[in-house]
Design brief:
Layout lengths: L18 E6 L3 E6 L4 E5 L13 E2 L11 E4 L2 H6 L13 H10 L16 E4 L19
Length: 142
């Protein structure tokens, strides 16, 4: 597969896989692998992509390992944790739900947690908090 254009969001850097079909959006791309799996890549800061060798499997199971911890793999998700400090997968109020669910797209009602629920969060990716490498926290890091 070949990709071209601006690669600011990582959309032009597909995972090493064999695909039967690929579809691209404004900030991300998704591919149907020959083994039937689906993987997305691209603008992780917008929550569009995210973990299968660097990309996130589509389907929204945010506790894929079943240990009761919601997996955080990007900066938008890390920021969303402030809306659910108890780690149960439900934002604290209606006003914060838009931001929370934007960071965890396609999440099932239970976030993929075990029957007794989730109890916190776990960081599953290295997050670059200084994306533009200017040694300052600023708008360029978003």
């Amino acid at each position: 597969m070949a990709c071209w254009g601006h690669d600011w969001s990582g959309k032009g850097t597909p995972p090493n896989a064999t695909f039967q079909q690929v579809s691209a959006g404004g900030w991300h791309a998704c591919g149907l692998k020959t083994d039937g799996g689906v993987v997305c890549w691209g603008a992780e800061a917008r929550g569009s992509a995210g973990v299968d060798g660097g990309q996130r499997q589509v389907g929204g199971d945010y506790d894929a390992d079943g240990e009761g911890l919601i997996e955080v793999s990007n900066l938008a998700q890390l920021d969303a944790v402030r809306h659910d400090l108890d780690g149960h997968g439900f934002p604290a109020n209606e006003a914060s739900s838009v931001a929370y669910y934007a960071a965890f797209p396609d999440a099932p009602a239970d976030m993929g947690c075990p029957a007794d629920g989730c109890v916190g969060y776990e960081l599953v990716a290295n997050l670059d908090l200084d994306a533009n490498c200017n040694v300052m926290a600023d708008a360029g890091d978003a």
